Amino acid sequence: MEEQEEYAKLIKILTGQEYIDELGITPNTQCELVFIDGKLGISSTLSKKLYIYAHKEFFKLRSKPTSTDCDSDEINKLSMVLLLINPECYTAWNTRKELIVSKTITSSKEFQFMNLILTCYPRSAELFSHRRWLIQHVIKSNDNEIVALCKLELKIAARAADRYYSNYISWSHRCWILRTYLSNNPEILLNELDDTMSWLSLHISDSNIYYYRQQLLTFLVKINHVDSKKLWKRELQINKEMIEYYEGREAMWLFRRFLLAKIPENDEEKKVLYHQEMKFVNQYNQDEGTSGFTWEQKRQIHFAKSYQIFINLIKSDLL
Amino acid sequence: MGTPQSDIDIPANSPTQLWRIKHRDYIVNYGKSKDDYEYCMSEYLRINGVYWGITTLCLLDQLDQLNKTDVISFVKSCQHSSSGFGASPNHDPHILSTLSAIQILTIYDAVNEIDVESAIEFVRSQQQSDGSFSGDKWGEIDNRFSFCALACLSLLGRLDAINVDNAVDFILKCMNFDGAFGCKPGSESHSAQVYCCVGSLAITGRLHFLNVDALGWWLSERQLPSGGLNGRPEKLPDVCYSWWVLSSLAIIGKLHWIKREKLITFILACQDNETGGIADKPGDLVDPFHTLFGIAGLSLLGDTTLKQVNPVYCMPEDVIHRLGLKVQMLN
Fold this sequence. Notes:
The complex is a heterodimer of chains A (319) and B (331). Chain A is mainly alpha-helical and 319 residues long. Chain A contains 14 helices and three strands. In chain A, β2 and β3 (39-43) form a beta hairpin. The longest helix of chain A has 21 residues, at 295-315. At the A-B interface, α2, α4, α6, α8 and α10 of A face α2 of B.
């Protein structure tokens, strides 16, 4: 059977010595499997045939009441092929968890496997869920390397965010790593603030990045970091410049509401700040219905009006 | 720098009336012409798909178009021995599938056809010490699973099986500065998670913990000039948010904070008048998921040609009424 041959070829590549750094399902009507310079390409026609085959065999083996070592090995391979094509098949990930627990698969190989899938499916919810399980599993048996592991995870999440615009799932993962393991680590918090600044300048409308910076600033305040207030004010200034330069970006305006409401200042300082903010936003006090405005200008006026309402609300302590 | 517009333009010749019969036919025929590959690929969410289809047909008052026995038989085959339900036979049990199973059986008034006690025990056993719920024994936490647990158990009249106070505590930990909710504590606000959390608080009668004005404002800001609703700031509108945002607004008594007519226009424009069904945006491919949420959204907006939908359970109101279930709603 053709799919059995192609399946065997794919397994040989997946279990071989050569490192695979990228996966792609190519829009190709031929049945092709290509592996060059670490790039693995499966034509969509072939991927469909492989999936049907691997799916059938996987579930046949999975429903066996008892399994041998040979079965474990086979189900490992079948699940790899399944997940290369459909990483949302949660039962296949569960099988791999069982194999990790029984030490048939090593954690490092599993991280590698997931990293490969992420090159093709950067926002797979089931993959990141499996990843979080593996991280917790690894840390349970060896908590020496938590920080190193987490630093790597932040990079992986960042890379996945790069591959798909406004990737809630990868950013959610990054937030989880930060909150669960790194919220007390000032060096990493500051580093992340720097690191995401350059990312922000390239993704100015991505609400994920603003929320992430909210979290970073909040954690810095929580650990009473000496620079937290200075960094907060700096953030307000950067945000102001961005709002003025890039018109009509909702995410920037919403971030400003947070910065204003949660700034670590006393009431007197806040009163001064609210006054300054009112002056700032007054420059957009126009009728957005007036003709001649671009889409962006209309949105800018609209968000400025909402921000004005917001300032008045927090001034009167209603929010 | 070029500004991509974060909204869509509704095409000039978009549908302006609801194609009820076409949607019925789309759902009834869905899956019949699927090839092997598509069938395999969608197994991991099959039971959810059945719930979407059934609920759509209920709202269209066309449930009799499906074979009740076949559906119940399928649902039964998804239950693991002494446990919960998987998405298809031989797929591992999960709380998402378990809720869909209970919803389907509740609609058919056939809950007693399955091992109810085991399903309850499966759900109960997902609750953690901090009140959160995992999806299955592997431990992923998400407030979607909290909603699944609370919805499931309340439909079965067994909220007593879990610690409700702790469950609520965890939900509230997921609240952000803007009054909305992310998937876990410390995650960005997302409309679908808002629905799960607001629904959970409605089921447990704890809506007073919400910052209603802040949340209502955040939700109303999901409406874009095209009339469609998005899931988060600066995202494109998507019909499924017509459900999650709308039902949340309905529960907190702020449905009037969005422009009703504009949203109706948007949803109707997402129909495909050739194949039937509703897509995420005008002109895109349709699917049962968006078909349900488009129709449920229209029901919530007052379309009297559709049956009334319950905003907490996304199930027909008459089914919830039959159970005598009371959920909290704010005026």
